[in-house]
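Re: beginner question about structure tokens

> Can someone show what the tokenized structure looks like for a real chain? I only ever see the sequence side.

Sure, here's an example I had lying around. Input first:
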Amino acid sequence: MAWIELEAADGHKLAAWRDGPENAELCLVLGMEIFGVNSHIRYVCAQFADQGIAVIAPALLDRAERGVEMGYSAEELQRGFELRARAPAAGSLMDIQAARAAFAQPKVGIIGYCWGGRVAWWGATRSDSFAACAAWYAGGLAADREEQPRCPVQLHFGEHDHSIPLADVEAIREARSEVEVFVYPGAQHGFGCEERPTFDPPSYELAQARTLAFFRNHLV
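And the corresponding structure tokens:
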């Protein structure tokens, strides 16, 4: 596990966290939340690495401010929103493609959480870089639901997510019948984050098992 540097197609250089075996058969690009590549994101990478999966988590906020690493307070949430607004979608797409290019394997997947889930969706719909995509509680995804995925996609939502109403989830289902959508009863936004009060271990464990099976099915 180590920090590495990536260079995007437009010449932008960004940091990224890499974990997992160098010769892994299964490789993932991981889209972070709006809090930076923080301790939680590095923990998520470690969980995949423990499964023999290589992971690269690019610092998508480096286009706004380098070295961002925050917790989950209300103040940090607001700062995260402000930084995200300064990170253009086109730049985020180039950044995840730069992370994908760091892997030599012919098939690479992408997974994202919260904002990173929406970025992962863009990776599936706006590029041919990825062979499979999973997104957990991806905010704003309903606005992009008419975009056609170019690879298999699996989505995970909490039933009581304050920022993603079930009406949005149903709109995604209706628009994208080919996408696998799971809703976790009683779960809230961030149900997979062990540092949040909304962490829901049973929902996390089920979503993680489904995610691992999905990637092993499409990438190996």
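Each token stands for a local structural state, so reading them left to right follows the chain. The beta strands are 2-7, 13-19, 27-31, 54-58, 109-113, 132-136, 153-158, 180-184.
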